[in-house]
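Course exercise 7: structure representation. Students receive a sequence record and must write out the corresponding structure in token form. The form below is the worked example handed out in class, using ABC transmembrane type-1 domain-containing protein (279 residues). Read each field label carefully; the graders check that inputs and outputs are placed in the correct fields and that the protein name is recorded exactly as given.

STUDENT ID: A-19
EXERCISE PROTEIN: ABC transmembrane type-1 domain-containing protein
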Amino acid sequence: MTDRRRGTRIGMMLLGAVIAILFVLPLWWMVASALRSQDETFRTLSPVSVWTVIPREVSISHFVRLFQGEFGRAMLNSVVVTAATLVIGLAICATAAFALAVLDFPGRTAVFAVMVVSFLIPFDAIAIPLSSIFQDAGLQNSYTGLVLPGIGNGFAVFLLRGFFRGVPDDLADAAHVDGLGWWGIFWRVYLPLSKPALVGAGLILFVFQWQAYLWPLLIAPDPAMKVAPVAIAQLSGEHGVDFGAIFAGSVLTALVPLLVLVFFQRYFTQSLTSSGLKG
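STUDENT ANSWER:
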């Protein structure tokens, strides 16, 4: 039985390694294509060989050409919009989750049900009518118009509410005895205990806004307000497609969330596991 278990474990590890390689290979091919000439990228596709994923000559010319255009400004816009969404969104989602988890008020269950339904509806389904409302309000081509739809995230509220409901009620009762109001309890008791949940909710807000394409395309057509995904898409035009620059831009835009997710992975896992401690 020991040998059989060992063999099963080795087999599962090998299977996991193969699956991981299959997931990594397309990403690595994108990186390799960003570091070699465009002609070499397509010449090595058929027949497939080791040179398909390993560049013969490494060059950063695609990255240099990319930043000679408007991509640098687009990356800066993405950073500004995502940072604003993260800060404002966490403040709004955390206070909303605290109210839904701790405060007892009429209609709390109905409000929470609306929150749950809100993140089940694809944003693309409401993007076009919502953009018309924003244009009528004078929010086109503005950071405010780019940020507002991302600050109220139903899934982030759901995650934080589950964590807050796992905090013992005795802590809030003791804080009440010491004279703290609900705002003081939220600020001094719940927030210091909710670091994993805040990181998890922050990652949700970050990824949602960083990868946004349709909404920035609709609400910010001004070239000065373009974000990185839109700038990459516009490298493909009627006069040709700059595949090298597209690969380079894709590597840069994927690298930022990858580093953030790797760094905060432990906290994100804790937030998901702890959000269901108390129903």
